């Protein structure tokens, strides 16, 4: 099995996202994209290359909409993914404590969590 990326996907998949040849390139799904944004603290607009929109319709590779019903469903899915990725109060507190912990305590915490 290949090495895992910080977002839990195989490194080969990340390499595919970054492929220079568009025929070889794949794209992350909404959940993977948002997960990467949260974990890397990178704004979404820095990851998506939005070129000049000539007809007012935004098109992203891998996401196409044939009518407004599809767009509504996609926006609902995006909202669900954002809600899923939001940290709970307990998770925020754990993250705060983890960041303030010593390097040794961090290693112990990761061992306890199986990381």
Query: What's the β-strand tally?
Result: 0
Query: How can the largest sheet be summarized?
Result: none
The coarse overall form would be globular
Q: Tell me the radius of gyration.
A: 18 Å
The percent range for helix content is: 40-55%
Question: Distance between termini?
Answer: 17 Å
Structural class: mainly alpha
**Beta content:** under 5%
Oligomer: single chain
Question: Which residues form runs of ≥5 with pLDDT under 50?
Answer: 64-68
How much is the average pLDDT? 75
The total of helices stands at: 6
Element order, helices and strands? HHHHHH
Description:
This protein is mainly alpha-helical. The protein has helices at residues 11-17, 30-40, 44-47, 68-85, 89-100, 103-112.
Keywords:
115 residues, mainly alpha, globular
What's a concise summary of this model?
Helix content is 54%, strand content 0%.
List the helices and strands and how they pair.
Elements: H1 11-17, H2 30-40, H3 44-47, H4 68-85, H5 89-100, H6 103-112
Helix pairs in contact: 2-4
């Amino acid at each position: 099995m290949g090495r895992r990326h910080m977002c839990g996907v195989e490194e080969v998949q990340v390499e595919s996202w970054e492929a220079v040849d568009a025929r070889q390139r794949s794209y992350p799904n909404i959940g993977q994209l948002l997960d990467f944004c949260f974990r890397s603290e990178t704004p979404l607009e820095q990851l998506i290359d939005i070129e000049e929109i000539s007809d007012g319709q935004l098109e992203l590779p891998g996401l196409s909409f044939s009518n407004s019903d599809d767009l509504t469903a996609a926006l609902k899915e995006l909202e669900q993914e954002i809600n899923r990725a939001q940290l709970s109060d307990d998770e925020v507190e754990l993250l705060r404590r983890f960041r303030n912990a010593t390097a040794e305590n961090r290693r112990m915490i990761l061992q306890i969590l199986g990381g």
